[in-house]
# Entry
Amino acid sequence: MTSKISNLGQKLRQGLDRLTDEEIVSRILAGDTGLFELIMRRYNQRLYRIARGVLRSEAEAEDAVQDAYIAAFYRLGQFSATGNFGGWLCKVAVNQALMRRRRLKSGPELVSDSNRTQYGDQIMCALESESDNPEREAGNAQVRRVLERAIDELPQPFRTTFILREVDQLSVSETAEILDIPMATVKSRTHRARNLLRSELDAELSNAVRETFGFAGKRCDRIVDSVMKRIEYS
# Structure
């Protein structure tokens, strides 16, 4: 499928971005298939987070997202314009991820690759720094890895619910619709996930607290060199 979006000018792209999901779907069904790129760019992060929550693997999640888009493209005619397209598309992604998980279950256990993951931006946004301080940036990266690893250790139903509610910031009703579970279950799973994460992070932070306010490497060398020079020339 040749994209009709990538080569368009910025102004035209911005104009198309203002189209609703339903308007885009209508135009795709009318033959403007290149507009499917807008759908993908609009939902890539959300679908990836969903698939990543189910599969715990970056590579498998990316494959599941691609499968979801292919499945959705060929089923666009089944989507009702009176429904919630985002919720419908997320359901497709959940189903594709779960099917992939079942296929892989008979093979080697999926190993988390959370040190490479991108999700969790909503949780960690306060940690982002524009500073060029390498020690601070390394510390922020370490905190992100701790959070991602802790989320990965959640049981799959809690993990997926937590990602939709807390990471992607969907409402209780939206999450319930996507996962096809009662809203009360969404609330209880989210609460349970928070408690499990709190316990895990408390242990991690207790171990890490001894490493705070470190003074090593270049800073240590700088102080030593400065003092020795002052002694030498005193």
Q: What stands out?
A: The first helix runs from residue 10 to 17. The mean pLDDT is 80. The CA atoms of residues 17 and 42 lie 9 Å apart. The chain is about 70% helix and 0% strand.
